[in-house]
Amino acid sequence: MPLRIEKPKRSLAQIFFLAAFLLAVGLAVFYLTSRPSTTPALTAEERSYFTSVYQDTWNYLVTFVEKETGLPYDSSAKQPPTSLTNVGLYLASTAIAYRTGLIAKEEAFGRIEKCLASLERIETWRGFPRPWVLVRTLKPAHGDEFSYGPHIANLLGGLIVAKTTFPEIASRIYGIILKMEFKSLYDAKNGWLKGGYNVKMQNFAVYQPWGHWYYKYFASETRLLSFYLIARKTVARKHWFSLIRPIVRKQGEKFLASGPEEGGLFTQYMTGLFLDERETEMGRSQRGYARYQMKRAKKIKAPVWGWSAAEAPNGRYLVEGELRDEIVSPYASILASIYFPKQVYQNLKKLEEMGARPPVKGSSRGYGFLDSIDWKTKAVARNHLTPSQGMTFLSLANLLYDGIVWESFREDPVVEQGFEIL
């Protein structure tokens, strides 16, 4: 007769405890495997190289600032106009330079205060500073009709990172933000942000000969502005999902289209300087776009990759619809370093060999990479551009210091509220 083994009887209490234990283990495993991954591991050689570029790029950002106003120039050419995008990236970079030990607190605080003092003097429309001004006089530049969306988004990013880094000036920064009439930007009929502004008409420039102008593409520079409006509860959560998301498929990769604002890699990645988008639909789009560019480089037999809006070697600024196969931008690939550090490291080394990172005479540090290079002729851009340098610096800060810009931005209570809403 076979031996019969009696299974032990469990009480209801024991069964409940076991079920609770298994549930807790399951939730813990789910949390640990689904939470955003840390920044990629780097070899000692890669870390050293990226750190040197990081330091050189800060050397540019700290050098090309107007002494009287404390505002950053738009490029190393020191032309008169500068933008709110430059101001926002400079504010964020200065705060992060302090957080990562490049400069002392006193220097960072002084630079930010001086910049804020000038920002408060710039002419405003509906509480928003004019997006382009003359760096020395602060007078408006580039006419009365302009695009505001990307500039306000990037300014907000810089103001918030400066605000969380220096709580002693938080009320001053919040005062600047509170003056902005965010409600006026939103068109409730279609759920989009109104396009442009005409100071002379004192109204938005929605109606254009070529069509109606709205900031309606999700994969564009204005995504950060949309996020902030939702975080402030100025607009409803549904605005996020009203933004259109057309899909592009190229060379086996899939990513979201940026619409008429398409300007290469930077349009996909710029909001991701401040928001950790790695585990989101936008993160998947960013990866797909970078992989597509790497594949395209192989297809056209280009030794390097990284296509984005930039100043070409002939001095012309190439924007959407004007990007050329032979002209690549070092900062563009750096934006993707948070996903593909090894590929970016190899790309930058090749670009440096071609002359895209020249030494600076009379300086112990360089200024990082020039804005572009023609890989066919080896001709390089004449200048470094502040938007490109700011994006480089903040991208590398996130890579080298485990998402320090993302964390700094998220320390703001309004931003945290945005994450809870979305």
Main attributes?
mainly alpha; 422 residues; single chain; 17 strands; disordered N terminus; 3-stranded antiparallel beta sheet; two-stranded antiparallel ribbon
Structure commentary:
The chain is mostly helical and 422 residues long. The chain contains 15 helices and 17 strands. Helix 5 crosses helix 7. The longest helix has 23 residues, at 12-34. The model is unreliable at 1-10 and 12-35 (pLDDT under 50).
Tell me the Rg in angstroms.
24 Å
Mean pLDDT metric: 92
Main β-sheet description: 3 strands, antiparallel
The portion of residues assigned to helices is 40-55%
Total E-strand runs: 17
**Basic shape:** globular
Which consecutive residue ranges, at least 5 long each, have pLDDT under 50?
A: 1-10, 12-35
Question: What's the helix and strand layout?
Answer:
Blueprint: H1 12-34, H2 44-63, E1 81-83, H3 84-99, H4 105-119, E2 124-125, E3 128-129, E4 132-134, E5 145-146, H5 149-165, H6 170-178, E6 186-187, E7 192-194, E8 197-198, E9 207-208, E10 211-212, E11 214-215, H7 223-231, H8 238-242, E12 247-250, E13 253-256, H9 265-269, H10 281-299, E14 310-311, E15 317-318, E16 327-328, H11 330-335, H12 341-353, E17 373-374, H13 386-400, H14 404-410, H15 413-421
Helix pairs in contact: 2-13, 3-4, 3-5, 3-13, 5-6, 5-7, 7-15
